[in-house]
Amino acid sequence: MTNARRALRGVLGVAGFLLVMEALGRTGIVDPYLIPLASTILTGAARLLTNGEFLSQVGVTLSSCAIGLLLAVAVAVPLGMAMGTVPAVERSLRPLVEFLRPIPSLALLPLAMFLFLSGEQGKIALIVYTSCWPLLINTLYGLRDVDPLAKETLRSFGFGSYDVVRLVSLPSAAPFITTGVRIAASVALIVAVSVELVAGGDGIGVFVTQASSGNRRDVVLAATLWTGVIGLLVNSLLAKAESRLFRWHRARAGEEAL
Questions:
Q1: What is the chain's percent helix, strand, coil content, to nearest 5?
Q2: pLDDT tens for each residue of 141-193
Q3: Residues 24, 27, 32, 33, Cα dihedral to 10°
Q4: Residue 69: pLDDT above 50?
Q5: Main-chain dihedrals φ then ψ at residue 146, nearest 5 degrees
Q6: Is the Cβ–Cβ distance between 37 and 21 less than 8 Å?
Q7: To 5 degrees, how large is the angle CA 244–CA 249–CA 239?
Q8: What is the pTM of this model?
Q9: φ, ψ dihedrals at 234, nearest 5°
């Protein structure tokens, strides 16, 4: 199935869902006051494109996500490389990782607000915390996928451990790390909006909270719709970049499957 055909089916699926929503509201099966018509939500979403306050809040959320994601990459990838290449490091840190990983980020929100001077810093800290896990795990999986023969070949030619990591392990793990970045980007957006909804400050979540307090359900759903669209666009762009950068990895995976 070509990418164009997949995209067309996705568009048709979304259009069908919106038509069903519209029909349920028009026929009175669903109260339009409780859940606005799909046409009302789409009209509100279009209006938000010219709403300076909303666009400003979107910028705040995306800025927090970008900063948190960059910091998570700087922390998780080197840590994953150390755990994946030095068995003693993995044995020491694995229990701590397995203990911390299941803790929901929002459960740490009071602690983050207490430790950091501003709500924005606390939000970024939680984004870093949550985004680290997919990056760390994907880095470890990527290192396990490295061909042992390639490493032994370099060592037989006198290359040291650092050169083996730089020339073989890191390039081989790069596709997995990139996948981790893509997953972490979606996680970062979810955490950022969730923190804004709970703790306030600035961002899309705060805009949604203010619209909700004014009983503007159409604006709430329109802003939520744009949040989903932003997440979809970010994921699609990163997936396309990943596909172009690592075509060789997909080809090798296909050969191994055969």
A1: 85, 0, 15
A2: 888 777 677 767 767 766 666 767 777 777 778 888 899 999 999 999 999 99
A3: -140
A4: yes
A5: -65, 140
A6: yes
A7: 40
A8: 0.83
A9: -60, -45
Tokens of 215: 């009983």
Residue that has been written with the tokens 């795990």 in this structure: 137
**Assigned token pair, 174:** 């790069």
Token pair recorded at residue 191: 């955490």
| Amino acid at the residue 190 | I
The encoded tokens of residue 242 equal 């990943």
Give Cβ neighbours of residue 172 (< 8 Å, ≥ 6 apart): 142, 143, 145, 146, 147, 150
Write down the residue that tokens 């730089």 correspond to. Answer: 166
Residue among 116, 140, 135 at smallest CA distance from 126: 116
Q: Give residues with Cβ within 8 angstroms of 155, minimum separation 6.
A: 164
Q: What tokens does 153 get?
A: 């070949």
**What is the Cα–Cα distance from 135 to 119, expressed in whole angstroms?**
25
Query: What local confidence, expressed as pLDDT, does residue 185 receive?
Result: 93
CB 49 within 8 A of CB 226: no
Taking only the tens place, the pLDDT of each residue in 72-94 is 999 999 998 888 888 888 888 88
User: Is residue 196 within 8 Å of 210, Cβ to Cβ?
Assistant: no
